[in-house]
UniProtKB/TrEMBL annotation:
<feature type="domain" description="AB hydrolase-1">
    <location>
        <begin position="95"/>
        <end position="320"/>
    </location>
</feature>
<dbReference type="InterPro" id="IPR050266">
    <property type="entry name" value="AB_hydrolase_sf"/>
</dbReference>
<dbReference type="Pfam" id="PF12697">
    <property type="entry name" value="Abhydrolase_6"/>
</dbReference>
<dbReference type="GO" id="GO:0016787">
    <property type="term" value="F:hydrolase activity"/>
</dbReference>
<protein>
    <submittedName>
        <fullName>Alpha/beta hydrolase</fullName>
    </submittedName>
</protein>
<dbReference type="InterPro" id="IPR000073">
    <property type="entry name" value="AB_hydrolase_1"/>
</dbReference>
<dbReference type="InterPro" id="IPR029058">
    <property type="entry name" value="AB_hydrolase_fold"/>
</dbReference>
<keyword id="KW-0378">Hydrolase</keyword>
Length: 330
């Protein structure tokens, strides 16, 4: 059993942007592909040790998982944590949480208490990202991204699951629903990027220097704060974990491309999309309007005062909207 440090509450308003710390690195991911290594890797054992220490510190802010699973797929081994929800929901499809780029499971610390009042929850360390998952095969297309996640869901015992995708995790969830929907009960998107609208020019420009691991740490921290509209990131365990991952891990993933309207129109299951009205990553109003147009069956809401750090800023409201979404389903 992991020994926990005393829980210290930090100001974590920005933590949704913890996922966003590298959301715009969808651009920078392309730069990594010139290196001959076919899969993601830590640059050294010392760098990996630094990241793992930061990961363990950040995990101490989560409830204790009742199961830790390493699920083998044809693309690698995926680390999954299971957190048991209320007994009354034991037969209901659980939530499976997909984080943003460079932000593994600890990014959900603020959300788990309220979500666990609704359902059991799985958190996932995305394959090919810094975390406990181990990539073993190239992921070089949207179909590859969908296939490894489909294989993960197929390896879990539940017949169906609700996907909750944050930032680039929203793209990951929607991409799966479009390509391999067999086990997807519904899709819940938290300020998703590259699903309904493009990245903002400012996000693209600011992401490039933040993605260069040999540049000063302050550059990556400044980008993290910018994505959360200026919220502080110093001395926050999840922020330290994400920065350590960005500095020590080389991504070898194809950069996600904007999902086409034709592909989106093929998403038939229920969809809830929650946009951050003050997100700097994209034009949230335009994204919401396009979501309503291309998915007329979806429920689309805009949190007017939220930044891209939406999950850390609005955990209770998000849980309430997810509860209402689940209640509408048969």
């Amino acid at each position: 059993m992991r020994v926990r440090a005393p829980r210290i509450r930090h100001p974590r308003r920005w933590l949704g942007g913890g996922a966003a710390l590298a959301t715009a690195l969808v651009v920078a991911a392309g730069f990594a592909l010139h290196h001959p290594a076919p899969v993601g890797y830590f640059v050294s054992a010392q760098a990996q040790d630094r990241f793992l220490r930061a990961y363990d510190r950040a995990m101490a802010d989560l409830p204790e998982p009742d199961r830790t699973l390493d699920v083998r797929t044809s693309y690698g081994v995926v680390r999954v944590y299971h957190f048991a929800g209320p007994a009354s929901s034991s037969s209901a499809p659980p939530l499976l949480l997909l984080p943003g780029r460079a932000a593994p499971s600890p990014v959900w610390a603020d959300n788990l208490p309220s979500l666990l009042r609704l359902r059991s929850v799985y958190t996932v360390d995305l394959l090919g990202e810094p975390g406990m998952s181990v990539q073993q095969r190239p992921i070089s297309s949207a179909r590859d991204h969908a296939q490894w996640l489909h294989e993960l869901l197929r390896g879990l015992p539940e017949a169906r699951l609700h996907l909750v995708g944050l930032s680039i995790g929203g793209w990951t969830a929607t991409n799966l629903a479009a390509h391999r929907p067999e086990k997807v009960a519904s899709v819940i998107l938290l300020d998703p990027v590259l699903v309904f609208t493009d990245l903002s020019p400012a996000a693209i420009v600011r992401s490039v220097p933040a993605s260069v691991r040999w540049l000063p740490r302050s550059w990556r921290e400044d980008f993290a704060s910018w994505t959360a509209n200026g919220a502080p990131v110093e001395d926050v365990p999840v922020a330290e974990m994400i920065e350590a991952g960005m500095q020590s891990y080389v991504l070898k993933l194809s950069a996600p491309g904007r999902l086409t309207d034709e592909r989106l129109a093929g998403v038939r299951m229920p969809v809830l999309t929650l946009f951050a009205g003050k997100s700097r990553m994209h034009d949230a109003a335009a994204g919401a309007a396009h979501a309503r147009h291309v998915l007329p069956h979806a429920v689309v809401k805009v949190y007017p005062d939220a930044s891209h750090a939406i999950n850390g800023e609005q955990p209770e409201q998000i849980a309430a909207d997810i509860a209402a979404h689940l209640a509408r389903l048969p």
